[in-house]
Amino acid sequence: MTALAAPARPAGTDATGRAPGVWAVYRWELVKLRYQKRTYLGLAASVLAPLLLVLAISLRSGAGHGDAFAFANYLTRSGLVVPLVILLFGAIWMFPLIVALVAGDIFASEDHNGTLKTVLTRSLERQQIFAGKMLVAATYAVFAIMLSGTVGVIAGSLQSGFNSLQSLSGTIVSAPRGLELVYASLVVYLIPTAAIVAIGLMLSTLTRNSAAAVVGTLMISLLIQLIGILPGMSGAQPYLLSTQFNAWQGLLRTPTDWVPIIRALWVCALYGIPALLVAFLVFMRRDVAGG
Amino acid sequence: MSAPPIEVRGLVKRYGELTAVDGVELTVQAGDVYGYLGPNGAGKTTSLRMMLGLISPTEGSVRLFGRDPHSTVRALDGVAGFVEAPAFYPYLSARRNLELMAAYDGYGAAGRVDFALDTVELGSRARDRVGGFSHGMRQRLGIAAALLRAPKLLLLDEPATGLDPAGMRDMRRLIRRLADDGMTVLLSSHLLAEVEELCNRVAVLRRGRIVYEGTIAALARGAAASYRLATTDDTRAREICLAQPGIDAVSTEHGHIVFTGEERAVAELSRALVEADVLIHELAPQTVTLEDLFFSLTEGDGVVLDGPEPLVVESAS
Ligand SMILES: Nc1ncnc2c1ncn2[C@@H]1O[C@H](COP(=O)(O)OP(=O)(O)O)[C@@H](O)[C@H]1O
Ligand SMILES: [Mg+2]
Asked: Which of A27, A161, B37, B292 is the most buried (most CB within 10 A)?
């Protein structure tokens, strides 16, 4: 290296330009996601799950057993069923894991890279950094679930056709109306997903360790499901976070059953808001030493 | 008059039993290149973390241009720097890292990315991922990241540590140049030579406490002008030394009389001794270098100095 001899001052050292805000954090957190492998792992799972299901359906019907089973029969009648089946089974661990991959990492990775001190000595308050990161974790969750649903609709329709759908009450729903219901279900599914994101964010700030936060979020999600199947705990069932992942099924009844959806809103708030509050307070107050 | 760039009062940081920073008082005036000198573990980084609002003080306060960095990040307007090794996102390029920081800086910082890269001579490596950068390149990128903020005050935590000799030289030149441009600099270091070369004022830190605060020149004066005396009658000699004008800080060390004084005063003293019939075995200037002084300040039980300017010195603890 030679002596450093560049110009002493930049061309325009004036203080023009605006103060940064949450938007700057949001935008750059998205950029960072684009450069990280875990982002694509989660999205790949979101895409592969419906594709594999469609593949399984086509192999089954190809083998001629298609009509032998009621469920398989139900699956092959309309492609619109595919995204809904993914929602049903994805709640056990797949979607919690996918959203935790980003939510659990988003604060902990700053600890891992030692970059918290870097971003906290710029012109953004801690609450702005927090808000930006929280919004990106939420955005990723929305994107992953919508992506999975959309891939499911397209792949399912290509395989089984864009046909009318049988509701859970037995009535027949037209294909366009069925499509609306699929997307409405995805939106309702975001309610418990948001609570999982909040838990991921909390563990990310508390553990300061990405792997611990991701695995921890998944463990919490699984443990809550376990509580539901313990003997004598059936009374708690409606208030478990895992149960709220089935709230969307209310949309597929005629008339629409709003009870589980309304309950999902406040039950998930009871899980999510305290978790978010813990994350916020820990992040606001913590000492940024080390790294 | 506007508030000084740095004003630290009664700053304390405790980690359980350990007091990492113990009542630090510090004022850095505009235009100072201020050395914050101390051996490893003295509490330099911890102090700088509090100055940058990264950790909260257990006691005391920090004001940057009169504002409290612990209450709002606005206190860091016009302030930049880093503690320990500057950290970046390894999977982003150098330029992207700086662009991110510029976005977080606002106020036109994005327009300074190229300037900053050029200043630290990383323009040609701007597209490479920081993950592959050497320690020296990261240190320079850290300076570039600080320059994005067009700072009036630069806080640097051992920026040359871990660099090879050429890297160290370049880093010092860069700091010198930034200081010449009018930036106020607080430079922490465990190397006396570095502080001596760059700084006009220095605070010496030892186990969280400031044991010397003042100009480098005063510190050097305290170091050089010390003499050792042995005579046929040391008791009498000591009395003469104490009475002699221009002879200060008389003490006894290892059976010798030790004192400070200008050359002329020492010559006068030798005559006074002879006239009092005290014969001289030995009268020699002590070869106390600034380095020795630094070590005695930071390693021993604390020495008592009494130079032309009063020195803040800790007594044996
Ligand atoms: N986060 C921390 N937790 C516990 N002890 C710490 C922490 N940070 C620093 N220390 C301790 O405080 C003392 C001062 O450390 P530091 O400020 O890093 O010194 P320096 O930068 O002068 O080498 C050391 O004894 C160090 O072990
Ligand atoms: Mg240090």
From this structure: B37
